[in-house]
Amino acid sequence: KNYSGTGVSASAAANWEFAPNYKLSIVGSHQQRLPLAQELYANGLHFATNTYEVGNPDLEKESSNNLELGFEYEGAKLDYHAHIYHNWFDDYIYGATTARNGNLRGVEYTQDKARFYGAEAEATYALNDTYKFGVFGDYVRGKIEGENAPRIPAGRLGTKVEADFADGWSGMAEYYHVFNQDKTASYEDETQGYNMVNVGLSYANSIADKNAYRVYFKADNLLDDQVYSHSSFLSNIPQVGRNFTVGVQYDF
Asked: Which of 29, 120, 145, 184 could form a disulfide bond with 188, CB atoms 3.0-4.6 angstroms apart?
């Protein structure tokens, strides 16, 4: 069955600086999304996610009305912002797990009314010209026809230190805690929370004042904690443990 369709999206925003350095914002949008080829025509094993996927050629376009409210402050040393949002979906397209045998899941693409809502916030403070300290957090909930939406990540709360040294050197260190996710959909297991500690160091410069480059080193999950990603089809399989990355970025 061939598919053709047209999607239309529109958005509008308003900002109010009601006092020096303070701003309120509101963003409203209407978005439409056409189904992907995989959502329409899949019929077989997907080895990367260990699922047997069945598409639905009768899917209609997905539509949503979205509202986001924001509050921001930007000072000489202190910055912070908080945003809350709510998304209302008609014909929300998703992969519903309809059967499970061990780690193998049967997934059928379907659509229903849904709503997602959540919040995210961050605050940073410049301790001096070199170091900046911050805290952050985010949380999201998803409901499909009154039931928990599948593969919704758990809430997160953390802190971060960034350093801008002289002569092109910079670094960062962050810690965050991801909470347990017990708001599960059909055939899902609860996922336990975990602690994540990451650090990084980089050096940036340019060659002949033209071609910029950056050399960086990252060390992630230094605690070697067991990490389970609820947003994955493989949420009961641990993610990578302690790991290190060295890289070079070159612009020309």
From this structure: 184
Torsion angles phi and psi, residue 213, rounded to 5: -145, 160
Q: SS3 of 39, please?
A: helix
Torsion over CA of 176, 181, 49 and 43, rounded to 10 degrees? -140
Question: 117: part of which helix (H) or strand (E)?
Answer: strand 104-126
In 3D space, the residue among 108, 138, 107, 99 whose CA is nearest the CA of residue 122 turns out to be 138
Q: What is the mean pLDDT of residues 75-103?
A: 94
**pLDDT score, position 32:** 96
Question: How far apart, in whole angstroms, are the C-alpha atoms of residue 108 and residue 55?
Answer: 6
Q: Domain boundaries in the chain? A: 1-112, 151-252
Q: How confident is the model at residue 57 (pLDDT cuts 50, 70, 90)?
A: very high
**Averaged pLDDT for residues 128-147:** 95
